[in-house]
Design goal:
about 160 residues; alpha+beta; about 15% helix; about 55% strand; elongated
């Protein structure tokens, strides 16, 4: 018994109390009793993996927080449960490539974003085929292409990384 208490006490001294380091798991509910949000809080800030729900119980969005700000890859869903959009967050703003889906789960368009604004290329699809490309700078469209040939002529496909 002494060894068990000593071991646990030593672990707390070495690694800290679990609630201090890992935070606490938090859940919020709608008035109906269905879950609204759940995830980790540390020092009152959202951290780690979080999941949010529509009132009908389907997942609305899920992703990671760091120090109360959205980070890394996030997924957003319709009330019917279909994927609506997905992409990266950096410092609580949409960044890098984002994918946007139609009602049937097909990619409708994908765009490069910076600080939540279109900045770079935006590729449009219909029936899984590329139909147009656009170039944006700080949220403003500066050029459109409606043929892959003209797009390739003016741009390097390596620019699409």
């Amino acid at each position: 018994m002494f060894f068990k208490v000593f071991f646990i006490g030593s672990m707390v001294l070495l690694f800290g109390h679990p609630s201090e380091d890992s935070g606490m798991y938090h859940k919020e509910y709608y008035e109906t009793g269905r879950p609204k949000a759940e995830g980790w809080l540390k020092n009152g800030l959202k951290t780690g993996y979080w999941r949010f729900y529509h009132p009908n119980g389907k997942v609305a969005e899920k992703g990671h927080y760091a120090f109360g700000k959205r980070e890394n890859y996030w997924y957003f869903y319709t009330e019917k449960g279909a994927l609506q959009q997905a992409g990266h967050y950096k410092k609580d703003a949409k960044a890098d490539w984002w994918l946007f889906y139609d009602d049937y789960g097909n990619i409708n368009h994908k765009c490069q974003l910076n600080k939540g604004k279109k900045n770079g290329y935006c590729l449009r699809y219909k029936n899984s085929k590329l139909t147009a490309a656009e170039k944006y700078q700080n949220g403003k469209k500066i050029k459109s292409w409606y043929s892959l040939r003209s797009f390739k002529k003016e741009n390097s496909l390596s620019d699409l990384r």
